[in-house]
Amino acid sequence: MRPSLPVLLSLLLAAFFAIVHAETDMAAAPSPSLATYLPPPLTPASTPVFLPPPPTPESTPVSPEIPPTPAWTLVSSPSPPPAASTPVSSPPPAPPAWTPVVDVNVQSIRQVGQFAVRIHALHLGVDLVFVKVVSCQTQPSDGGYIYQLVVAVTGSGAKSPQYNAVVWGILGTMRWELRSFKAK
């Protein structure tokens, strides 16, 4: 037996109103935070000490009235031990030295130079054409290398025949950044 259309519409309408009222009811009351369920934090210098309950009158002889002891009291913890003498740390090591690239006609070095020229030309919208890498030196950095290049260029957008370029990248990946490109 299939429910009729009026029954389905009334059920859908009822569900809709229940959802709307639930959202407005929830929005009216702020939700409790975790802080409402946690006891106040203890200070580092104090810890709770739980004392046993006071003895019952049947087990102790009658004596003058003693004020009731609280269920727990705060007792200062002992002071931390003195810090061991820390050795004086040396400054961080200097970054590795720049290594000159002997053969600048290696394909990977040429590609770094081409990358620098293309990115600069695209960024400024000028006509620059890569000619060659004149010189290059590298330095390891952040899992890749920083390349300091002098590249020769031509084109109508060239302000100078040579440019200094600084590129960071990881060979074999798409992670490359042109950090500087200036006319020499």
From TrEMBL:
- Residues of the signal peptide: 1-22
Source species, domain of life: Eukaryota
State whether keyword Acetylation applies. Answer: no
List the Gene Ontology MF annotations in alphabetical order: cysteine-type endopeptidase inhibitor activity
Renumbered to this chain, the Pro residues biased-composition regions fall at 50-70, 78-94
Region annotated Disordered sits at 48-94
InterPro entries reported for this sequence: Cystatin, Cystatin_dom, Cystatin_sf
Ranges for the Cystatin domain?
A: 103-183
Q: Which GO terms describe its biological process?
A: defense response
Q: Gene3D superfamilies per the record?
A: 3.10.450.10
Keywords, A to Z, come to: Plant defense, Protease inhibitor, Signal, Thiol protease inhibitor
Spell out the family assignment given in the record's similarity comment.
Belongs to the cystatin family. Phytocystatin subfamily.
Name used for this protein in its record? Cystatin domain-containing protein
Task: Give the originating organism.
Answer: Hordeum vulgare subsp. vulgare
